[in-house]
Amino acid sequence: MTQIAADSVHAPTADIPGKTTGRRRSSRDVPRSQRASAFTYIMVVVAIALLGIPFLWIVLTALASPAQLSQGAGALLHVDAYWQNFSDAVTMINFGAYTMNSLFLSTLTAVLTTATSATVGFAFARLRGKGQNLLFTIVIASMMIPSIATLIPTYVLFARLGLVGTYWPWVMWGLAGTPYLIFLFRQFFTSIPMELEDAAIIDGCGWWRTYVRIFLPLSRPIILTSLILSFTWTWGDYLAPSLLLNINNTTLAVATASGYLDPHGNGLLTVQAAGAILYLAPVVVIFLFTQRFFMGESLGSGVKG
Question: Which of 15, 93, 234, 269 could form a disulfide with 109 if both were Cys (CB 3.0 to 4.6 A apart)?
Answer without folding.
Answer: 234
